[in-house]
Queue: 2 jobs
Job 1
Amino acid sequence: MKIKKCAKKLLLINGTILDPLAGKEYKGDVLVENGKIAAVGKISTKDADVIDCSGLIITHGFCDLHVHFREPGREDKETLETGSRAALAGGFTRVCAMPNTDPPIDSPESVRFIVEKADACPIHIHPIGAATKGQLGKELTEMSGMAEEGSVAFSDDGLPIMDGGVMRRVLEYGGMLDLPIINHAEDVCIRNDGVMNEGRTSTRLGLPGNPVEAEGVMVHRDLELAKLTGAKLHVPHISTAAAVKNVSEMKKQYENISAEVTPHHLFFIDDDLKEFDTNLKVAPPIRSQSDRKKLIKGFKNGTIDCIATDHAPHTIEDKEATFDMAAFGMIGLESCLGATLNVLVEEESLDLMTVIKALTVNPREIMGFETDIFAEKTPAELTIFDPKESWEFSKNDIFSKSCNSPFVGRKLTGRVKYTIVKNQIALI
Amino acid sequence: MSLHHRHLLGLEGYPAEDIQTIIDTAFTFREVLDRPIKKVPSLQGKTIVNLFFENSTRTRISFELAQKRLSADTVNFSASTSSLKKGESFKDTVQNIEAMKIDACVMRHPTPGAPLRLTEYVDAVVINAGDGTHEHPTQAILDMTSLQKKFGYLKGLKVGIIGDISHSRVALSNIYGLITMGAEVTLCGPATLIPPHIEELGVKINYNLDDVIEWADALNVLRIQMERMGISLFPSVREYRSLFGITTERLANHKKEIIIMHPGPMNRGVEIESAVADSDQAIILDQVLNGVASRMAILYLLLGGKAES
Ligand SMILES: [Zn+2]
């Protein structure tokens, strides 16, 4: 991957422009001047650097609401800088970073630390602040002060807020600020010591299971409390049929609800863990085939709003352990488009527009970010990809500092070629 | 006479003909063990390491004895997983051992899947001596050897497995092995100690011990661990004993005399009454001797020992 400054005039020609905001797809060119959108359509101009985009899609830069960049504290796993490179490789121009760092991002000062560091990075990184001090699930953080410094949402992600009374207050207080609350929805008592989905496969492997009810029960509680408080609730990494059903039911009664699904929950099933691959050890766990099918259905019917990677880098030492001791999480930025298109477009014949919306307009809307990316004078945030390319994901495609990906060796469909953001272009 | 797989990691999907070959070979070695001179030169020159990441006196002694009877050279390595947590990784430990040029690794490890990882790190033949609550294939084979010796057949045999199925290291391998060999298996124990979805492996569940005793030809009684009581998996020893304890009184209510097995170590007076454990119905000590013979058979078959008289 090469990253260089955009030419003063950069002309993308002969591409298929996919405008997920307008819901339109047409042949055309895009002119970027001084890093800003200058024109979209049929363009003839002189003195421009030209990139031939024949056969490629030009669309909004992808936006990921759920990444773990590990800074501060675990810079050996990832930094804002290395995470940004992984994002660029995956076509992401904007991400929201979870606060479960060491120490956690739970004060206005620590939010400012991220914002200042992110400024020097090649993509836009928005901190999500912790909802409770130290992510201990007890006392509220200074959400207003954190919001002023740039926190775009609040979450104790990684750690569920178990106390329903605390969750209610988090929703009330966050609702007052009109910012989304994201709760890692797993009832830790029901989950117990589960390390994979509870089912036939966990029993066969002798591994403690984490039942779908651990998520279903928690999502149900959060949805009820969101309605009670009138707050915005975003349900992260939804993994079960029960949670999809709960979200779908609640969306009929209450509108401030959104949900995300990860590419890995769409791609893998629990049977894939039969070789004890620790890269498939994630929280919430990879579920059964029937849950996976319900996630796809929930995506198709709009219950699930967006795709988020839950990019969670870990060192080789943390993953090259026996299954019980291995860390939870996998990286996901670089493989996101290929995995998602492989499942939703290649296998499930869903239209490309719906999928791209879930990577662009929908997540931006949830966070209140600018969605009119093709408007003139907007700082260019563009992703250019080949929607058809069939390729095998390999270690060489990873730009994260960590390489804990179960996608290595897997066939993916769709590949990012260029990512444009912050007046720079990444050639992948 | 050789087996289809290079390692013995578990009995899930293990071919019936191979299980039968091992059992038949175990019978031959059982005869050797009844001779005055119990040693054969089959594995002379072979080096076997016993890697125990968890204490297990019985299994380790059984393997060691099997190795000595076959004239193999053995080394023992014991490490608690707590020392692994402190720094040296599992991979480092086993690669160090591999560097010493060994032919086979017998491993006991508390984590499911650890033996499969081991096959990736070493060239030696790997024999799983128990990986947590996953598999313990040599125990299941010795149990089946004992049953076949007693009944003369396995196909159609009715076996009840009684007690803590969830935390048992022997239940799953027994289930896989017995089902493969055409036996019928019923599990009986507190609902909190029976793994979810286990019926999908082809077994039945019955919470009524008397029904199971009436039905069964043999019972495999598992050890109940007292620690489980504290985390509310069962309320008390008294209640456990009254629902699932094997007592002479209970057995006397049934006409048919059935065989009682126990993988040890026993909690006398809890899951099994002393009088039952010491009765003629129990083949617990025979299991121990068959354990040595079965492990000799497995080592012999996997390490390509030359046929001896
Ligand atoms: Zn999470």
Job 2
Amino acid sequence: MMLEIRNLHALIEGREILKGLGLTVKPGEVHAIMGPNGSGKSTLASVIAGRENYEVTEGEILFNNENLLELAPEERAQKGIFLAFQYPVEIPGISNATFLKEAVNSIRKAKGEKPMDSKHFLQLMQEKMKLVNIDKTMTQRSVNEGFSGGEKKRNEIFQMAMLDPRLCILDETDSGLDIDALRIVANGVNAMRSKDRSFLVVTHYQRLLDYIVPDFVHVLYEGKIVKSGTKELALELEEKGYDWIKSHETVSQ
Amino acid sequence: MEVSPEIFVEQFKKAGNPLGKIQQEAIESFKKAGIPHVKLEEFRHTNIVPAFAKNFSFEQKEHTYSAESLIKKLPVSSIENTVIIENGELSKVLPTASGIEVVSLNKNTSHQQFEKHFSKYADLKSDSLAALNTAMAKSCILVGIAANQQVEKPLNIVLISSATDQASFIPVRLLFLADKNSSTLVHLFQISASENGETLTSIVTEAFTDENARLEVEYIQQENNKSNTLSNTYVESAANSFFKIHTITLGGVLVRNKLRIRLNGQGSEAYFNGLYLPDDRMHVDNYTNVIHAVPNCTSNQTYRGVISDEAHGVFCGRIVVEQDAQKTQAYQSNKNILVGNHAMVNSKPQLEIYADDVKCTHGATTGRLDSNALFYLRARGINEQRARALLITAFASDVLQQTTDPALHQFLIEQITLKLSVNNLCK
Ligand SMILES: Nc1ncnc2c1ncn2[C@@H]1O[C@H](COP(=O)(O)OP(=O)(O)OP(=O)(O)O)[C@@H](O)[C@H]1O
Ligand SMILES: [Mg+2]
């Protein structure tokens, strides 16, 4: 199993956001997670990536059978977890290229590999830049600084391609993208799909799922997965809205 | 231990006024004012008195080090264009570029420019440290750049301070004269001869930039952690001249840099940039004073501090715009990052504006490393210590990017990275 989450409870500033969440992802699968604003989607993504201001009070997360909760964020990244942020952070003073070289070589070091030399690193960058249509000037600019919303999202996918992770978590990577950029990003993601890489795709829109076709769709509501299905579930949600789930949820309680 | 001006007065009597009668005035001023204490507004956050509580030696010591090997660690590309000053005395002038004059002067040497400018800008009445320096200096080292000279390579000046088992008091006196239409870049390195010699260095630098002259100083303070530095710089600028200084403080235990410029000719520009990274129990104080005396001048100050452990950073930036100085543009920014729970900073702008058509902005911030940025880097596999070091270097880049010489820039990045990799930043 790539990822197993059992009965996950997490707090932020004393308030419980995740309330017994369970999810299982096999290698090669694409899972979409949908749900109303504030339901805990980004919280889930952050807890998997290891953000420290969340407190996990119950439950477990296993990644390739290893307990993730004991690991620092960088160790999780080194083991192949990648979070494409809903709100990518601007870091003035560090160029995209420098940042990526640090990241690539940190991950290589953790695996006991030699650092990549400049020549091979540049080659790798050039190859991956094409994937999401990033131009050279963007790699020379400070990380995300002054990038448009869409550029930031493309930059996340570019980083993902550079770091070659096993589990990719995309937190609303589609929001803020124009129609062409959406297609570019989706193509980039699809090009990375493989039998030993899995995806958790958080989105509000069924449209993305026309491009990145998921194996499963889950609805996250008030800190729990309340409904799971196949891609048709997304269509149903688009049509009926979350009220349908909410009433459903009350009935089942 | 008691701290009194007396030991300096006694020493002064022995020396016999090598720089002339101005020294008599200076010692009187110093006697009257004494060693500045924390009750004075200018020294409110910086207690320099303990630095004086030493049983000082004033003698020149036997050299137990090799200046050449010390210099090898600096980004001094060739030993050309290099001047070595040991304990305040000019000890070596390697072939300098044409148009640059470096000489050690005293009352027995006759030098027209020296007589015209020496001790004309430092304010002995209001600055008792400048008075002390003037009284105690054995010589004045003049660096003159001839009119119309565009010096391509940086002039390296290396200040070496040394002490044996007894603490040393070291007066250093410098005078920079940039003649009309000249242009120079000076690298001023301040280093210790050994890891554990205890020193108190008093540096007074006076500089005059004549019309259309351009003088840039990159001042790297890298003394050992027992060294105290009290640096007082006074600059006077004529019309359309340009003065820029980077003060990069990487070492010492107590460092106070007072930097004053009087923009006294229309169209002149001043850039003061500073970067300080005190750690352990170090104290760094940058006190700047920009005086706009005439119209149409620009000043710009960018200071960045990273304060670790139990260190203390102080920035006080005083801008005075005199009544006649219309169309002044004066900017100032000071940002600090605190690393560790006991680090401290005091930052204070002080604006006195007596003209009405003035553009003046200032801003100061103090904070911690951005936790979002830190998580972002870590989420990409970069370990915490390294991520913090990267963010700190990025923060410092506001200042570092403005350094002119690529070799020096590279050296500074390396030194800062080295410093940060030794420090425990994960607190
Ligand atoms: N630092 C914080 N302090 C307090 N509450 C927080 C903090 N971060 C998140 N929350 C709260 O946790 C809840 C879940 O937030 P989360 O970002 O996980 O929602 P989401 O499902 O991703 O929503 P959206 O669709 O709007 O992105 C929200 O009510 C939010 O206000
Ligand atoms: Mg969210």
